[in-house]
Amino acid sequence: MSDVLFGVTTRRVALHFAGQVFDEWTRIEIVRSIDDISGSFSLELRDGVRSISTWPFATLAGLAHRSDLWSEVKLTIDGETVLIGWMDEIDPFAGEGQAFVSCSGRDKTGDLVDCAATVDGPAEYRNVTVLEAAKRICKPFGIAVRADADVGEPFDRVAIDPGETAMSAIEKLARQRALIITSDGVGGLLLTRSGKTRASGTLTFPGNVTESGGAFSARDRYSEYVVKGQAEKAGGARSKTATLDATAEPLTSDQSEAISRQAAREEKGVSIVGRAKDSEVTRYRPIVSLGRTQLTAKGAQTQANWMMRTARARSENLDLSVLDFRSSGALWRPNTLVAVDDSYQDINRDMLISGVTYTADEQGCATRLHLTGPEAYDVEPEEERRRNHRRSRRKSGSSKGATGKLDSTAERLPE
């Protein structure tokens, strides 16, 4: 199948919308990332020669003024579905000597980012896991929720704040269980952890990688991450003391001291603290986060560890570009492990594909891959995963794959 028609138009990407299929585009960008709950797309078709009256895609421009704007969207690459969602905007334009229409939107989980978790209630759930809570929150939106990782113990109490978005309500729970919340790309929400599958190809530079860039930042990293909160059953049940009334006798000094000691015990009983240190940050840079739900000691510690590892991951990024949308027959996908051998960035180890951007323009079809350390979004011991493998000698410009030992626990994606 040809990537380019009339020099600049790709037909490999099809938009199924309002009962029609549009499959000629001069520019596309489809983004999927585990850092963003919702994938997005932006498509554009230009025609600088023919007038709008003879343009075969004028019908798409007309949709901007019809109720079809609320129709479901499906995007496919080579017939394989990569996104199911909704249209956000359609922008038609025509002038002397030119005409084009652009459209953009997100997958269905975008509504969870925009909209309130609850309007009239319930505002509180009891004894639910993060998966059960997410299913209840997502049910009115018609979004299915599933998990492919252990979601942890139930929460005694989950409160939804007035005006809180659905995404915020789910995210604050997932953070305590070290879970990634992401779209599955086909209209559902997935609770997962990182690197459960392996990409079918490898990335080498020089080699199949056409561009290599990196971003390493100290801005959002801290020496210590402290999570503080309260719980009714933190260090034992709170003792009960009699309430005072107008007839109560003044307290003696002994009674006052006893009440002070009791108050100190109660404070210890309801206070929760979790701490995680980033040994790579060598100067004093602490940060304190207040728990947005009732915490347990285990939950606070998990959240502190999670904050440290995700902050570090987002500060160490590798961006690699490759030709085409596929490797060894399979689409590049987010949340997959891939062997990387980049001589310029001095990286030779497994990396996690945290984001994928499919692009097409006058230069042809390509994929931008956003990568970070494989230990970034899980709770497994880091061991040697942050260290390079020994690079074998090879000729400059060779496309030979990375020579490091692969993680045997990751499943290979089917071709």
Describe how the helices and strands are arranged:
Elements: E1 13-17, E2 20-22, E3 27-33, E4 40-47, H1 58-62, E5 72-77, E6 80-95, E7 98-107, H2 110-114, E8 124-128, H3 130-138, E9 145-147, E10 155-159, H4 166-176, E11 180-183, E12 189-192, E13 197-198, E14 203-205, E15 209-216, E16 224-230, H5 253-270, E17 271-277, E18 286-290, H6 297-315, E19 316-323, E20 326-327, E21 330-331, E22 336-342, E23 347-361, E24 364-372, E25 411-412
Parallel strand pairs: 9-12, 13-22, 13-25, 14-22, 16-18
Antiparallel strand pairs: 1-2, 1-5, 3-4, 3-23, 4-7, 5-6, 6-7, 8-10, 11-12, 15-19, 16-17, 19-24, 20-21, 22-23, 23-24
Task: Walk me through the structure.
By secondary structure, this protein is of the alpha+beta class. Among the domains are: 13-107, Phage tail proteins - horseshoe like beta roll fold; 112-192, Phage tail protein beta-alpha-beta fold (3-Layer(bab) Sandwich); 224-238 and 255-312, no CATH class. Helix content is 16%, strand content 37%. It has helices spanning 58-62, 110-114, 130-138, 166-176, 253-270, 297-315; strands spanning 13-17, 20-22, 27-33, 40-47, 72-77, 80-95, 98-107, 124-128, 145-147, 155-159, 180-183, 189-192, 197-198, 203-205, 209-216, 224-230, 271-277, 286-290, 316-323, 326-327, 330-331, 336-342, 347-361, 364-372, 411-412. The strands form five sheets. The chain has a 15-stranded mixed sheet that branches. It has a three-stranded mixed sheet with strand order 9-12-11, with helices on one face. It has a three-stranded mixed sheet with strand order 17-16-18. Helix 3 (130-138) packs antiparallel against helix 4.
